[in-house]
C-alpha cells in the first residue's frame, strides 16, 4: 500500500480521489433534506438558505419564540438581514412545520378505567 503513496504521480491521483469523495459527500449532504412544501416556502428559501443549508432548519424544532430568538441571534451575530414584513411569513412557516413534536405516546389511561388489581 505504502508504495502507492511513494510514487509522486500516484499521490496526486490519491489527492484528486479524496477531493472528489469529499465534494461528493458534501453535495449529497446538501441534497438529502427537504423543506416542507408550503405557500410561504419561497420566503424561507430566499431568507434562510443563503448562508447555510436548509437542513439546519429541518434538523431543528422550536416554538415560534424559539425560532424568533434564533433569527435575532443570527441577526446580531451572523449578519442576517432584517426580514421586514416577511418575518411574519417566515415565522408562520417555521411554526407550522418545525414546531416541537409532542410525544408519540398516548396519554396514560385514567386510573378508574384500569382493571382492578388482584389482591
Ligand atoms: C447571513 C447568514 C445567515 C442567514 C441568511 C441565515 N442564517 Fe441561520 N445561521 C447562520 C450561521 C453563521 C449559523 C451558525 C452555523 C453553525 O453553527 O455552524 C446559523 C445557524 C442556524 C441554525 C442553528 C442554530 C443552532 O442553535 O444550532 C438555525 C436553526 C438557523 N440558522 C436557521 C435559520 C433560519 C430559519 C434562517 C432564515 C430566517 C436563517 N438561518 C438564515 C447564518 C445565517
Structural notes for this entry:
With 119 residues, the chain is mostly helical. The chain folds into 2 domains: 1-32; 33-99, Cytochrome c-like domain (Cytochrome Bc1 Complex, Chain D, domain 2, Orthogonal Bundle). Helix content is 56%, strand content 0%. The chain has 6 helices and no strands. The chain is flat and about 80 Å long. The termini are far apart. The structure holds heme C. Residues 47-48, 50-52, 56-57, 60, 70-71, 74, 78-80, 90, 94 line the site of heme C.
Beta-strand portion reads: under 5%
Class from secondary-structure proportions:
mainly alpha
Cα-based radius of gyration, to the nearest Å: 24 Å
How much is the average pLDDT? 85
CATH topology annotation of the largest domain: Cytochrome Bc1 Complex, Chain D, domain 2
Please state the overall shape, judged from the principal axes of the Cα atoms: flat
**Named CATH architecture of the largest domain:** Orthogonal Bundle
Please estimate the helix content. Answer: 55-70%
The major pleated sheet works out as: none
Spell out which ligands are present: heme C
Q: Give the end-to-end Cα distance, rounded to a whole number of Å.
A: 72 Å
CATH class of the largest domain: Mainly Alpha
Fourth-tier CATH superfamily name of the largest domain? Cytochrome c-like domain
Tally of individual domains? 2
**What's the tally of helices?**
6
Low-confidence stretches: none
User: H/E element string?
Assistant: HHHHHH
* Number of DSSP strand runs: 0
